[in-house]
Amino acid sequence: MARPGLRQTACERCGPQPLSRLQDRLTAARPEPSACPRVSNSMEENCEPESIEDVLDCVEDAAEGEKRVSVADIVDQIGDGAFPPLIMVPALIMISPASAVFGVSSFCGLLIVLIAIQMVVGRHKLWLPRLLLEREISKTRLDKAVSFLSKPARLVDGLTGKRLAFLVSPPLERFWAAVCVCLAIVTPIFELVPMSATIIASAVMLFCLAMLAKDGILALMGLAVVALAAWLGWSVAT
């Protein structure tokens, strides 16, 4: 027969426990807040622009809370597989007053060549050298460019529609990307005449918007701008 002391101890172990003790055990079993998984910034969705205004919004989002914005920031915001809007960004910078600074148009032309040629060969993800990805622009200058382009962008976006979409659908998208490459290659020549590179950039912008909006009419308008650029180049050469 068990002694009373041992029986009482066993009853205490098997009997109901105080509520405070159960709460302590439940609290101890809970994971620490820091142990919970967090979604990293790299898992956030890209902005997926479909118009000039959308592209400008993506650029603004990339610059939010920063004093300087790098090429890598803009690529991450738009998405490294969205080639038409990525080509459009340097073209828009060339159209803005930022192109008045000598060398800006040539740098933007280099970006257009590297991006568009990867679209021509059918790459699914963009690759750029680290040296270019780390190039930065001040947020103040970028904000001025976006502000300058906002009203014209709204006007041009309002004129778009799905017209002659077969002209800007695969595989013809690669043709327009190849045209962008050819135009961007001659950008340094046009930069010798102040602001003349804006004409080339306007054509590139129209081609990119045509691919985004599936508007073949815009692509044909871009060809008209190319003809104007060719006439201007011939006039300068002769």
Automatic annotation (TrEMBL):
Pfam families tied to this protein: ExoD (PF06055)
Superkingdom, taxonomy of origin: Bacteria
Residue stretches spanning the membrane: 91-121, 192-210, 217-237
First and last residue of the signal peptide: none
UniProt keyword Transmembrane present: yes
Alphabetic keyword roster: Membrane, Transmembrane, Transmembrane helix
Region (Disordered): 22-42
Protein name: Exopolysaccharide biosynthesis protein
Native species: Neoaquamicrobium microcysteis
Species classification: Bacteria, Pseudomonadati, Pseudomonadota, Alphaproteobacteria, Hyphomicrobiales
